[in-house]
Amino acid sequence: MHMANPGKLKVLVVEDDLLFNQFYTMFLEMKDAVCVSCFTVEEARHILESDISEQFDVIILDNHLTDGEGLTILPLIKQRCNGAAVVMVSGNDDTNFFLRAFAEGIDDYAVKPINMDLLWVKITRSVAQYRLAAANAQQQRELEIWVSEEQKEQELARFIFHNMTKQMLQPVSFIQTKIQPSALFSGDVVLYRQGYDGSWYVLLADSMGHGLAAAVALMPIMELFESMSSRALPLSNLVFELNRKLARQLPDDRFVAAAVLKINPLTDLIEVWNGGMPPVMLFAADGTLRQCVRSSNMALGILSDDLVEVTTKKVTLHEIDRILMFSDGAVETVISATGEMLTYTDIENIYAQNAELGFGNLLATLADCADAVDDISACEVHCATIMQKLVTSLREPCQKQGIFSCEMTLSGRCLNDINPPTELVELLLHLAVPQELCNKTYAVLTELFQNSFEHGVLQLNSEIKQQEDGFFTFYQLKEERSENLSATDSIRICLEWKAVSSELTLEILDSGQGFVSQSSLAQEHQHYGRGLSMVANLASSLTVVAPGNHIKVVING
Fold first, then answer.
1. What's the CATH code of the domain at 121?
2. Residue 141 in domain
3. E strand or H helix that includes residue 323
4. Are residues 213 and 359 both part of a single domain?
5. Which residue among 25, 188, 268, 545 is the one 20 to 30 A from 277 at the CA level?
6. 205 backbone φψ class: left, alpha, beta (φ>0; ψ -120 to 50)
7. Contact of 438 with 429, CB cutoff 8 Å
8. How far apart are CA 20 and CA 31, in angstroms?
9. Which of 513, 202, 227, 168 is nearest to 378 (CA)?
10. Residues 83 and 175 grouped into a single domain
């Protein structure tokens, strides 16, 4: 037994009266339906237990059959063809009978003699309801599968995000952070990392939007922040590269607001760059607001390389006790106790009342808020602790006695491929050279190598940075000239470490022309000094050998 025409309405007619059975069949076939007829309960059972049972859309069921009641096969109908509508036909018009029939699972009924047009309406309506229910059930199953897969994807994404940030957020006593997402994922992130020179970089970023889409936009900056901050590069370079990467990888309608700090205890300097974030608040020890660095730059990822502004605000470190950064979600949230949004003045007052507990009290205030519509993030850096660690750091003598010396010469494209400050300082760390001395060495060596490369080998003039769009012009020239290095372009570095006297000597010689005269040396020192003033502050002695392409530095532990 088989049924053809799979697209047509399929009907099982269970009727023991031959005339009625043929009448139903003829009428339904005129309606372009496919019919299967039977006359007894036993025949109906046989059909329902066959392979074609699941194909029926509707069953016309007479109750009074020669071998029993039609109602007795309703359980089998529901078991074998649960998607089929059942229309009961009977000469019995007793209300209690039909109530019983509905209770046992029929969908509609008709009383003999049958009005066939009315029967057709009942059939099509019942079938439509079943098909709608089936479609809803299918959509529900598909939705459940989609939700399940979406949850798996989000769990995987959250796991990846957690691990990426965890590696960069090893707990330190002087940096406190708080992120309160408005969805499963946060579009805010706080990153911090210590560079080889002992400086600390802190980034609070707020990606446009909410949830996973906002969080994904933060991914391009995570590894870049980690690599550049560990190498203790200038903050302006870090901001420039972050903007460059986001501008190239994000869609035009996406951007990332950010506040970035570089805190260098060796040079007693704080640098701040604010692009599209609320003010960065710098407090004195008594909670007084000493500086408020407002955003004067566009968010990252909007401007092209030649338009982005990377100039930083510089503040003396020892004058600042605490630095507070927060996202705009913190000041766009209604506080339940007052029914009003938190203001900058409120935050200033919280710190003025008790600077030591300022961050904790701020978080408690933010916790007492109505349903947040935006991610909330905040970060506090305790600068006094950083300075205290520098002052009280133990200068343990090197356990490995003797003298270590090495010489490294880089020429041509190797000048782009190797980072000597990192390589040499890692060697010193393996030799158990005190951490503070390694930090100083890295800062000095980075400054000297960078200047030898940029000003000596590449012959770039520092005055370019003073011009409009100067940083971009300088950066572009550096890239262009770096692509055309020859074997005669070189830098030689000599390092000697004497463990007994805890003395480290550095010499760096580049293939550049140096300075033509002492007057030009003084002029260059006036503009950017090739970093010599900073180097002089960290070193015990500094000697510039004329014409200026050879520098000797001694650093004592």
1. 3.40.50.2300
2. no
3. strand 322-326
4. yes
5. 268
6. beta
7. yes
8. 17
9. 202
10. no
